[in-house]
Amino acid sequence: MYQRLLKYIVGLLLLLTVSIDPVTAHRHARGPRIGLVLGGGGAKGAAHVGVLRVLNEMQVPVHCVVGTSIGSIVGGLYASGVSVDELEHLFLDQNWARLFALEVVKRGSIEDLLRSLLPANLPTDFDALPIPFRCVAVDAYTMREVVFSKGDVAQAMRASMAIPAILRSVKTDSMKLVDGGVLNNLPVDVARQMGADIVIAVDLQQNQHDPDKSDYKWDPTATKVPQVDWLLKRPDWDIYQRNKADADIVIHPNLKGYGVGSFSEKNIREMITIGYQTAKKMQKKIKKTVKKGK
Q1: Cα–Cα distance between 185 and 204 in angstroms, integer?
Q2: Average pLDDT across the chain, whole number
Q3: Given a cut of 80, is residue 94 above it in pLDDT?
Q4: Which of 29, 44, 142, 230 has a CA positioned 20 to 30 A from the CA of residue 3?
């Protein structure tokens, strides 16, 4: 009787193990903690979708996602349970030019769209999402980085992509939040802070800034006008180089000729394909890095 009961319990545990939803499998997996970092780049974020498709095909477990700007949109939706197919449809089916124009007239249009795409009743703790998530914005008043770890996912994503001079800032509490790319367009450091042992970063930046290797440290309190200090020192270039060097895998699709506003269906399809092909070429390196970390 005892042995029969034991076999039943073991069988039940095995059944539960194999039936775990792949989106939440990261909570049960052993081995290195893998962080996915999605950089900013406007319409070029379509390439993120192609990269995600390859990682899914490879069954690479993703234990946390961090994004900036369009990377926060793709990353936040994906971390909340939106599929790669749904993300592809978002890029292809949405009239982005009209949406941005509508946002100028009607504040909240983009946030409303994002909210409609997200699953209902999401937790306010971003660690409790199907995949733990962070996104980066910047307080335009102080020029300090703001990392969202809780709150309204749709609002956090919208704040992270508030491109200055293109989209309105998001005001909350005492802050005026703008695009996280102003300071941290490839937030590998945030993924490390989340405990990522291996970081796969998708870098959409085509102009690979190489700032003067000086010893200055960015301090937004150094002057009475931190915006001027930012303009003179361009700390985002230095932060970008450090983060890029700290990533274990950098997937860098060649998107020259495409811009932040290249939202035509033709361009989107091409950039998704470029992202897919670029990641596909790096499969061996990705497998080797993930295996080495185990």
Answers
A1: 9
A2: 84
A3: yes
A4: 29
Q: Residue 87: which residues within 8 A CB-CB, separation 6 or more?
A: 48, 49, 52, 74, 77, 78
Tell me the pLDDT tens digit for each residue of 77-88.
999 999 999 999
Gap between the Cα atoms of 220 and 227, Å rounded: 8
Measured distance between the N- and C-terminal CA atoms of the chain, rounded to whole angstroms: 40
Distance separating alpha carbons of residues 106 and 41, to the nearest angstrom: 24
Q: Are 182 and 136 in contact (CB under 8 A)?
A: no
Nearest to 122 by CA among 72, 88, 79: 79
Q: pLDDT (tens digit, 9 = 90+) per residue, 9-24?
A: 334 333 333 333 334 4
**Residue among 142, 238, 139, 227 at smallest CA distance from 189:** 238
Q: What is the pLDDT of residue 236?
A: 87
**Token pair for residue 16?**
């539960």
pTM, two decimals, is 0.83
Residues in the chain: 294
Asked if 157 contacts 76 with a C-beta cutoff of 8 angstroms, the reply is yes
Vertex 70 angle, CA 77 and 166, to 5°: 130
Active site residues: 69, 179
